[in-house]
Amino acid sequence: MEMDKYVCPICGYVYDPEQGDPEHGIAPGTAFEDLPEDWVCPYCNTPASSMMSFASVMGG
Questions:
Q1: Of the candidates 15, 2, 10, which has an alpha carbon nearest to the alpha carbon of residue 54?
Q2: pLDDT given at position 16
Q3: C-alpha–C-alpha distance, residues 33 and 39, integer Å
Q4: pLDDT tens, position by position, 29-49
Q5: Cα(1)–Cα(29) distance, rounded to whole angstroms?
């Protein structure tokens, strides 16, 4: 099952669950829904709660 990607509305960073965010302790394969509550965009510090699903942004 493919996991959804999420986009930061401020800087455009895309969180890809297949890649995770290893530089910030998030292992590859970590679904967006499973991110810690304190995880923020690694580029602009926008909270995860503000990120939007890639499919909704791309109209899919």
A1: 15
A2: 97
A3: 11
A4: 999 999 999 999 999 999 999
A5: 11
Q: Which residue has the tokens 């810690």?
A: 36
Q: How far is CA 17 from the centre of its chain?
A: 7
For 38, the token pair is: 């304190």
For residue 1, the model assigns a pLDDT of 57
Q: Is the pLDDT of residue 22 over 60?
A: yes
DSSP letter at 7 equals E
Residue 54's H or E segment, with its range, is helix 54-57
Element (H, E) at 52: strand 52-53
Q: Between the CA of residue 25 and those of 30, 40, 54, what are the distances in Å? A: 10, 12, 22
Task: Give the CA diameter of the chain.
Answer: 31
